[in-house]
């Protein structure tokens, strides 16, 4: 193989995707035009001193390679489809692209179609967006496979409808500087949306393909509680697993009397914890633990409270981790530990205890979500004293650097605009932002002006279902503060999404809305996908920008 063409790069973000000499913004076509006009190599090098003779020869080799390529016509006239231009890619003589026809999106293939199923239209195989075709495409285009993202700053982009990934990528390209988890959904969300973990990964795959996203991206099996949940997600090749042990957190221990704590402490499952009461005391009581600019110190009561509150959750996490390790086999994965949905805050002392005990039990993780002080309610900004939050978060961040390093995770992170600069400043890059429901709300914003009748129906249903659907969420909305549909003109509908109470009302009732109006909503977004992508891009730039500023 001639190595010279490898000196040529094509990046959609550089010179509008024109072939350039790698590491420069000098077009291959510009060099070829100079040569065609009689300009010599030495003259080109004088004009562009950042180039080498090998770069010029690479341009010539690239031009020769392109002249040998077979011309493939994927125009609307030839295929009967609107082709998404970024999706077009040629690999080993086979062209792949994503197109839209009267019946929706299809994968187009011209060339070697082995492993794919579809309907042939002349020399093009048109394939439905099935799980089997998604898997076959991932085998051909490795950047479509989710990957581990390590300690880089990351953002989880939950997508309850399976159509938001292109909009998320638009925002990521505008902001730059962080890596996304594009497939992210909890088992609770899967149940309410009627989707499977495999469908979540596949929907993200098609979005990545449509937008030609070549940077690493992850897939988060969110809020896993059982080993059965783990197995389903391992089968779907997730790369990031969030264990949620909140059902094993003893919230009462936060305020129990010392006598009650002693009884609970004695009853802990010491054999399963591979520990003894006196050993645990010996590791903590009377010791000072230096954490960058401060120290942590356990007295007897603080240790009893931390152990009684979290030891069962720590043990559950360790069991889930061991099961995941066995189930994944040779497949690499990353773990997040999440205690954010417990009823009581995680103090820095308790965070240190959780992390230290997880380490003792052999658990390895990439991020941890404590229950922060203040209120992280769904769909709205942080509620609480920001100065107190920053002081508390700074200690959590220092613990993550010293005991880890690992990232702090912001769960229920959607729309917490006031805390993003604090998290970015204090975590120093070791942070993961997790969003979910906000993408659904932006989908509603997109359809409000174009399908006002559908928006009114969803809003009316939200009023009816809020009392029941809010049961599993941290929310405090008052439905009486949200206008009824018949009280609003069409031009006022999207304004409901700018109300604290309106956002929460619509946020937590998404399951009911999708059960009743899911097909209509998906069809509306499909018909107005550019408006959908624009709404997502605008909203997510606001989420992401503080972490790269």
List keywords for this structure.
20 helices; 4 domains; 6-stranded antiparallel sheet; Arc Repressor Mutant, subunit A; alpha/beta; 18 strands
Description:
By secondary structure, the chain is an alpha/beta fold. It has four domains: 65 residues, Arc Repressor Mutant, subunit A (Orthogonal Bundle); 68 residues, no CATH class; 192 residues, no CATH class; 82 residues, no CATH class. It is globular.
What is the CA-based Rg, rounded? Answer: 27 Å
Protein structure class: alpha/beta
Q: How many helical stretches? A: 20
Q: Count the E strands.
A: 18
**Count of the separate structural domains:** 4
Strand order of the largest sheet: 9-10-11-12-15-16-17-18
Unreliable spans are none
Major β-sheet annotation: 8 strands, parallel, barrel
Mean pLDDT over the residues: 94
The proportion of residues in beta strands is: 5-15%
Helix content: 40-55%
Shape: globular
Instruction: Write down the oligomeric state.
Output: single chain
Task: Compute the separation of the termini in Å.
Answer: 42 Å
In short:
The chain is α/β, with parallel strands linked by helices.
List the helices and strands and how they pair.
Elements: E1 8-9, E2 20-21, H1 28-36, H2 41-47, H3 53-68, H4 76-79, E3 82-83, E4 89-91, E5 94-101, E6 104-110, E7 119-121, E8 124-127, H5 131-140, E9 154-157, H6 165-175, E10 179-186, H7 187-193, H8 197-211, E11 218-224, H9 227-235, E12 240-243, H10 258-266, H11 277-284, E13 288-291, E14 294-297, H12 300-328, E15 334-338, H13 348-360, E16 367-369, H14 386-403, E17 407-410, H15 420-427, E18 431-435, H16 437-447, H17 452-469, H18 500-508, H19 510-527, H20 529-544
Parallel strand pairs: 9-10, 9-18, 10-11, 11-12, 12-15, 15-16, 16-17, 17-18
Antiparallel strand pairs: 1-2, 3-5, 4-5, 5-6, 6-8, 7-8, 13-14
